[in-house]
Amino acid sequence: MAKTKTVFICQNCGHKHPKWQGRCDSCGEWNTLVEEIVEAVKRSFSGSVSSVSPVPLASADISKVERVPSGFSEFDRVLGGGIVPGSAILLAGEPGIGKSTMLLQMALKMAGTDKKLLYVAGEESVGQIKMRADRIGPGKSGENILLLAETSAEQSASFFDDVDAVVIDSIQAMSSGDLASAPGNVAQVRQCAAIFIERAKRLHIPVFLVGHVTKSGAIAGPKVLEHAVDVVLTIEGDRQSELRLLRSTKNRFGATGEIGVFSMAETGFIEVENPSAAFLGHHDKPVPGSVVFAGMEGVRPLFVEIQALAAPAAYGPPQRVVQGLDQRRIILLAAILEKRAGIPLSRQDLFVNVIGGVNLDERSADLAVILAIVSSFRDIPIDNGTAVLGEVGLTGELRRAPRTLPRLKEATRLGFSRIIMPDSREKLPTIKDIITTKVKDIFGAFNAVF
Ligand SMILES: Nc1ncnc2c1ncn2[C@@H]1O[C@H](COP(=O)(O)OP(=O)(O)OP(=O)(O)O)[C@@H](O)[C@H]1O
Ligand SMILES: [Mg+2]
Asked: What is the pTM of this model?
């Protein structure tokens, strides 16, 4: 096959270079060159006849959006009700979090319903995958799963014809013969994904792409692919704990924000039916610095414990070590506490953790963080039958939180006796066994708990 012509284009200024070099000649930026294929196609409108023609919206064919169940109900829910044939789904996550396990388990479940799958292993040997399959699905027949240990994108794509779904593990391990750069490189990742997606769309089968991310999400892969795929799923969780969250951050066929909760066991992923209970720490008696946040993830309530530790800074500038929340938000909340409530946090190291490895991006977690910090600073525990929610504004006021009713119901279900929340205008029905304390600002919340 004739080598395609490629150039190296600076991602900063767009200057073209015939060879790779560390620094762009034009703008002087380092490490910005990415190999790209030169397309020799002339794009002219004159005389070109398109093979497709516009159709009225009213008569557009939607029969193609029929969903195929994966056999994993949590997985299907995150996808918006099943797998859409012809869709490209990126499964991203840190190394070792369980990406291969999840997709192999799904493949085994789908194979059990007479679907035929192709599993392209770019990183592991066929033997390694067989071992994993025996561990997570002992006794399951692997007749319908074809394993292919291959790193060439073109070769792999040539086996897509007779299967119902394809798994590429991982996109960073694949390379296209059209490019000279190493696998995992931005250009390679993009090109290989384009090959797989184009082929899968033509054959109308779903393709799952595994993509690695590092803690900072910096490595080429998921970020450069997000726009090219239909669905982006991420697995998150604390590797020390067995809980894993599957989250969709982009979905062309359903709502995002849905999460699936799994626990990682010897036999693979097990769906967790009562996520809040799994995420809550079990304290026999109240402890300072621990507060339960009445959160929502998608349409489901998820209660999590937020822990804070305020300790005098021994030397240097005080530290803000945060896990599971936005660090800048914690700095802001600490500043609000310092300025509005006169709590001298500028000489305190602050550590704030969300238990269970969940990443919270809901602003309503603010009040829980503030109460946890104050509870630790003053060394006064908060009653462990209390859950809180509310976004805190710069003046210390509390903003209304969305969807309070499902949170209240979850609180009763989990046996909480009190919920502290912003003064919402929403008419709430009286719920048995639970006291709702509505507060206007952080001082109201302090009075209610301390
Ligand atoms: N025998 C076992 N029992 C329980 N858990 C196991 C066992 N073997 C492996 N695991 C879990 O599986 C995880 C690895 O899963 P998997 O290989 O699916 O992750 P991955 O995200 O594909 O990783 P990679 O980035 O290396 O491809 C390990 O981190 C471990 O937690
Ligand atoms: Mg893997």
From this structure: 0.81
